Amino acid sequence: MILELDCGNSFIKWRIVDAQGAVLAGGWTGSEVELLGAISDASLLINACRLVSVRSDAETAHLIMAINRAFGVNVCCARSESWCAGVQNGYADSGKLGVDRWLAVLGAWSLAKGPCLVLDLGTAITSDWVASDGRHLGGYICPGMPLLRSQLQTHTRRIRYGEAFVASALADSSPGVSTMEAVERGCLLMLRAFVREQVSLAREQFAGNVSLFLTGGDALLVRDIDKEFRLVPDLVLHGLALACPLGDK
């Protein structure tokens, strides 16, 4: 069995797959301790591990050591490369492209085999474009909902509210009748405007022939914008399997 880890800024996404890629167990955790406990509770024999991390080198190294000690397996850690699985990295310095973006691009290309727009909506929003021949054309980065919210709360003293109220504030997009509603709905409108513009620009670039991919924790907030969106929650992990092939385990 193969343990796959996607270590984001806020959470660690994990799953255990068999040699054919079938998911046997998985979930989200907020800490290394919770992660090790959840994996142990799954009661599945781990033979190998592959990992993608956007955390610091020190944090990533510490987690790799913990996995090695706990389960006795080596860890393959994904890196951004100049070329992989039919995709050419669009950055002049390929290692500077965020590895989570790189893996999402690999995953999308493997599914579409044609022009792609890849939107990952997390702490930050990333947009990446891939041409028909597998060339990564670059992309865009802007703040996601968590960053927009935190910046307003940090720099505006009177904006304070808990996460428990966010879902209710996003139930509709009418003008807010409280500061919380006004902030959440304003940020949501900015998010949706960015996504609409990306779709419009990509369709113009590729003459309408483009596959639209959505992933990330806030993807559901924009899924209704276009009927051709393909929601792939595990897109980064799909790319991870391509970047770190481990054979039959």
Automatic annotation (TrEMBL):
Binding-site residues, substrate: 91, 98-101, 179
Cofactor: NH4(+); K(+)
Catalysed reaction, written as an equation: (R)-pantothenate + ATP = (R)-4'-phosphopantothenate + ADP + H(+)
Gene Ontology MF terms: kinase activity
Catalytic site positions: 100 (proton acceptor)
Binding site for K(+): 120
Source species, domain of life: Bacteria
Protein EC: 2.7.1.33
Pathway where this protein functions: Cofactor biosynthesis; coenzyme A biosynthesis; CoA from (R)-pantothenate: step 1/5
Protein name in the entry: Type III pantothenate kinase
Gene source species: Pseudomonas fluvialis
Gene: coaX
